[in-house]
Amino acid sequence: MTTATNDRPASAWERLTGNRDVQRFALCIATGVVVALMTGKSGNTHEPTAGITGTFKSANGYIWVAIFLVIWALLTAREHYSSSYGAVQRRVSRTREQLLGDRRARYGLYGLMLLVAILLPYFVSNFWQEVLVGSIAPYVLLAVGLNVVVGFAGLLDLGYIAFYAVGAYTAAYFTGSLPAQPPFHVNPFWAYPLAIAFAMLSGVILGMPTLRLRGDYLAIVTLGFGLIIEIVANNLTSVTGGAQGVVNAVPPFSVHAGVHYTWPLELLPGNHVPWYYLILAIIVIVLILFHLLENSRVGRTWMALREDEVAAEAVGINPLKYKVMAFAIGASTSGVAGVFFASKTGTFTPGDFAFQASILVLVIVIFGGMGSLAGAVVGAIVLQYLPQALRGHIQQTDLYMYYGALLIVMMIFRPQGLVPSRRRAREIRLAERGIGTADSLAAPDQAP
Length: 448
Known about the structure:
mainly alpha
């Protein structure tokens, strides 16, 4: 047998298969075929190949192949024209920085976005009004609150949904909707300060003994806290109602101060709009307060702790104090969302606060852009809108496959998130050039 040597010129086949563009093309075609088969027709015992032939007899199979061909073309063009792409990207970044740096332009953009949000319910169907109020808006609040813990302070919290449960059960308790009766009954509006207080207290109770931990250890402890809250709610039947949940419906919000108004039940078309404007007002207030907090001394301290806790402690910062503060403030927002959820739905069970919900909120924060308030809002809108938009077009069993594929693609090609904070985007750019890491602005140690 003749063995090829290193100095032998490569054959045409070797040159073809060794070409990076050809390898990427083959990978994209194969991926498109696999995805088409996964989402296409099903086979059966009598016709094992019916799934393959049925998939490519319809347009669905070829659509998936075409989509991955477009992805291949974009990746190839980006690689071949990287210098031009980089120049365009830098120009877009400078334009955005100039726009956001102009206070009048920035406030004008905020005003335009608020106007769109105010008019939006009148341009969508009753179904989408329900999605806005029931799915998107509460998760916007949850994502903004968790962004304080994960994005600002850099603490991995896997049990964040527990504070959501604390807010909901606080509202149910003080409105007399649980088996355990309170010493006094309040309007759900007055449950807001009580829920904020109880959620913040829960954050402090969790934070004081555990925030001396870091990284994976902190994540495990917070995960345990979230599971404990769900199990207690299930088992403490005499207080929480157990697995059955709320016994008597939590009353809706009402105002009786000169003006008498009660938020309507959401059963009829158009009744979602008053709830939408209520949650929109809450979100706007929270965003304004957190924006001020981000640019305050406390916000800068959180970011210093996130970047390098040892260095921050060396300059006199008390890490435990500011970590507990981050947990308490983030928990308060989750408590506010819990009160809204309890009063809007009227009834709920411990299953509404399962561990998967904590993971979803964390995914929203990372997908939108850690440390970015706008990113948390956009991430919640996109990831809560997509499942509803795809619901009528694909099989429900395949829904989360598309969801997962989107997250994988996003983390590969835009790890900083949809709308990253300027600091985070700069970290990513410097890391790509070998200066520091994606988690620090500090340059690596240079060898002598």
